[in-house]
Write a structure and sequence with these properties.
Elements: E1 2-7, E2 10-16, H1 18-26, E3 31-32, E4 35-40, E5 44-49, H2 54-64, H3 71-87, E6 90-104, E7 118-120, H4 135-140, E8 145-150, E9 153-161, E10 171-177, H5 186-200, E11 205-210, H6 214-222, E12 226-238
Helix pairs in contact: 2-3
């Protein structure tokens, strides 16, 4: 269920994730995420939340509007959600406040030649994969992935996540390089290859870099992506 409201002139879409709440809380999952916020400079504010906190979230949007991702706003939001979290037997986990800068592709072709070793990955590459990502599972579920292979090992990858088409954003991607191969520009090369493949398929790209991770933001900018907003979500762990 999605509802539209306004916050100081900025459009706000609030999506109530009833099925997710029932699934997570009903099955006593160790991790829960009761609210997810995206603030985009051109598109407005997008919020996903559990139905039990919808009233509190709407009141919070009305109060803070475009300042919803300010530190003051987030502290107040946590206080408003605290009674629900205690009732669900959840508490904030370490680093529960996850804030990311959002970058997007411009639609222009990438002028950089693809380096030797960077190629599209297949399910069979999982045997060579040295990252923490499950390449075979991702590809089986519709993802695209490019990786860098060296001496029979996949040391770096860039892959897509696919989201509900109701939300107006581009295909989200992630990158990872094994620690021993970092600092060589491998994630950048894989990201550029994936970006170009998505462009040829008619898709844009969205990349999220933790506000605490300067190297990740640097990769995005060097890949030709443009900063367009921020997102935030609140991670809870069962007591």
């Amino acid at each position: 269920m999605t509802k539209n409201v306004k916050a100081e002139g900025l459009p706000v879409r609030i999506r109530v994730t009833r099925e997710e709440e029932e699934f997570i809380l009903g099955n006593h999952f160790d991790i829960a995420m009761p609210i997810f916020i995206r603030v985009l400079q051109k598109d407005g504010i997008y919020i996903e939340c559990y139905p039990q906190v919808e009233e509190a979230v709407r009141a919070h949007v009305a109060l803070y509007g475009e300042r919803i991702l300010s530190n003051q706003s987030l502290r107040a939001l946590h206080e408003a959600l605290a009674p629900y979290l205690l009732a669900w037997h959840y508490a904030p986990e370490k680093n529960s406040m996850r804030r990311y800068d959002i970058y997007r592709s411009t639609g222009e072709s990438d002028p950089h030649p693809r380096p030797t070793g960077v190629r599209a990955l297949t399910e069979e590459d999982e045997e060579k994969n040295r990252t923490t990502q499950d390449i075979a599972y991702a590809l089986q579920n519709g993802a695209l992935a490019f990786g860098y292979e060296e001496n029979g090992e996949i040391l770096s990858i860039a892959a897509t996540h696919l989201y509900d088409e109701e939300w107006p954003h581009d295909v989200e991607v992630m990158v990872e390089t094994v620690p021993r191969a970092r600092g060589r520009g491998l994630a950048l090369a894989c990201l550029r290859a994936l970006k170009e493949e998505l462009r040829l398929l008619g898709h844009g790209l969205e990349y999220r870099a933790s506000t605490r991770n300067a190297p990740s933001g640097s990769v995005a900018r060097r890949a030709g992506l443009v900063h367009c907003g921020q997102c935030y979500y609140y991670v809870l762990r069962a007591k």
